[in-house]
Write a structure and sequence with these properties.
single chain, Ku70, Chain: A, Domain 2, seven-stranded mixed barrel, about 20% strand
Length: about 550
């Protein structure tokens, strides 16, 4: 039990370092022979770590308590004595009080394998219940992390009045197994904890004089490795960079008011002030403007050009009524969106989302609108896919069988990014002077043995239907031998020539950029244009000058 307890405490420390390093954590032992706490006001209470931000030194201190040597160190340092949970709770209350910062959330976890820590001592039991009630009144959430005990852990015997009310009433009975919350703490995910805040707060204009305050939230953000911090080599202090602009000829420092911006248009440099640039960027004030409603079938999959965001009105009544109305009519709202000042306007579709709750009446999905960003005409591209032979119906049916066998329910929270997980493990190994980083399980790698067992002979049957007899996809194809052309060399690729009328049409429509560099080079040779550059824009400029003359 103690071995698992130390491992859980270590996991709490290491996960806090990554998830939210500004959280404050303390470690307090009670029932010890030695006493160590502020002013030593409480007997048999040993504050191993004061309430402070977790760090590598603290993790190493907990690691020192592992194994036989760790048990011997704990016995020499703290020992074992009388138990008074009330004094321990009082000491924890003082640790909270000594912090001058405003704490948004306070949690106290009790690790123990004794369901009657005071052996029936009524005075100590009353003191512990009174102090636990005082802590809960100040906003402290008290959780019980009970360990293995022969005969089961009887929570109502003492701890029923100590801990905060649990979500599941089944936790208050006789527990034969250790607390399931220990498994949650052990199975830590190394991920940065992001602040839950609105990306923007805007007004949704439903008509003249009718505005609704809404908030826009990102439901999923790509996790990235934390950026490297530059340090001064001699002192290891963080280095802050500053950028300044100097005149190229005089070397004098330029002020922001002395810097102008320019845009080349028609081979002429248009110089603008900073205020003029900002005025050009501004289309309108930030906000959402309702344009109308469209049937849901008009929204296509290929309209998805960037991740959607979630819109939630500030007024609850409007949320429910609007969502229900759009769901009943099977329509989405079409709006113009300007998310921030000087941002270009975009058309968005507000797709309603109904509230969903589980069996315990806990909300799974919130009511609101998914904001789908719609593309402009300039964003759409015409593709010229290569022509490939079509599969026969027998081959299609066989692949359908394979797909049905490999079907599984995808859950994003079941997969961790292996690159980020390995990065944090490497940092942990360096900070804690570990011999090697902890092994990472790559959850995105396919389970080949399980897949082969599910498919059986289907893969070979599909291979026989699609590929010729004796084909092995793992063997490298034989190198093609060059055909003998009687010393004339290899056959050259045919030249791609574009007629002059098509080139002029491209120039008038401004679509010369759609032609490839080899085609543009061949067009330049066709008109006898000598080009010194090989860049695409140089070729386009040369062709434009020649065709315009």
């Amino acid at each position: 039990g103690l071995k698992r307890q130390r491992r859980v405490v270590r996991n709490v420390y290491t996960s806090k370092i990554i998830r939210s390093h500004r959280d404050l954590v303390a470690l307090v032992f009670f029932g010890t022979e030695q006493s160590k706490n502020p002013k030593n006001a409480f007997k048999n209470v040993y504050v191993y770590h004061n309430l402070d931000e977790p760090g590598a030194k603290r993790v190493q201190d907990v690691d020192a308590l592992r194994g036989e040597k760790g048990a011997q160190l704990a016995a020499e340092t703290m020992g074992s004595g009388e138990t008074s949970l009330g004094d321990a709770l009082w000491c924890c209350s003082n640790l909270y009080s000594d912090i001058k910062l405003r704490l948004s959330y306070k949690c106290l976890m009790i690790f123990t394998c004794r369901d009657d820590p005071h052996g029936g001592n009524g005075a100590k039991n009353r003191q512990a219940r009174t102090k636990a009630s005082d802590l809960k009144d100040t906003g402290v959430n008290i959780n019980l992390m009970h360990l293995m005990k022969p005969g089961g852990f009887d929570v109502p015997l003492f701890f029923c009045d100590i801990v905060s009310p649990p979500e599941d009433e089944g936790e208050l009975g006789l527990q034969m197994e250790p607390c399931t919350k220990l498994d949650d703490l052990q199975q830590r995910v190394r991920a940065k904890e992001l602040k839950k805040r609105a990306m923007a707060r805007l007004n949704l204009c439903l008509g003249e004089g009718i505005n609704v305050a809404v908030g826009i939230y990102a439901t999923a953000v790509s996790a990235r490795k934390p950026g490297a911090i530059k340090l001064y080599r001699e002192t290891n202090e963080q280095v802050h960079s500053k950028t300044r602009t100097f005149h190229t000829q005089t070397g004098s420092l330029l002020l922001p008011s002395e810097i102008k911006k320019a845009q080349v248009y028609g081979k002429r440099q248009i110089v603008m002030e900073r205020d003029e640039v900002n005025a050009l960027k501004k289309f309108n004030d930030p906000g959402l403007l309702l344009i109308g409603f469209k049937p849901m079938e008009r929204l296509k999959l290929h309209h998805h050009i960037r991740p959607a965001v979630f819109l939630y009105p500030e007024e609850d009544e409007i949320t429910g009524r609007s969502v229900c109305l759009c769901l009943e009519k099977n329509v989405f709202a079409l709006c113009r969106c300007i998310s921030r000042r000087n941002y270009p306007p975009q058309f968005v579709a507000l797709v309603p989302q109904k509230e969903e709750v589980d069996e315990g009446n806990v909300q799974i999905t919130a009511p609101g609108f998914n904001v789908i960003y719609l593309p402009y005409a300039d964003d759409m591209r015409t593709l010229d896919p290569p022509q490939c032979p079509s599969a026969s119906q027998i081959q299609v049916d066989k692949m359908k069988e394979i797909v049905s066998k490999l079907h599984f329910r995808y859950r994003s929270d079941a997969f961790e990014n292996p690159v980020i997980q390995q990065h944090y493990r490497n940092l942990e190994a360096l900070a804690l002077d570990m011999m090697a980083p902890e092994e990472t399980e790559d959850l995105i790698m396919p389970k080949v043995a399980q897949i082969d067992g599910s498919l059986g002979p289907l893969v070979q049957e599909f291979t026989d239907l699609v590929y010729p007899a004796g084909y092995n996809p793992e063997t490298k194809p034989a190198a093609k031998r060059k055909t003998d052309t009687g010393g004339a060399g290899a056959e050259k690729k045919p030249k791609v020539e574009v007629p002059e009328n098509e080139l002029r049409a491209h120039m008038q429509n401004g679509t010369l950029g759609k032609l490839t560099v080899p085609v543009l080079k061949e067009a330049c040779k066709q008109f006898g244009i000598r080009t010194t550059g090989t860049k695409k824009q140089d070729l386009i400029d040369a062709l434009t000058d020649r065709l315009a003359s």
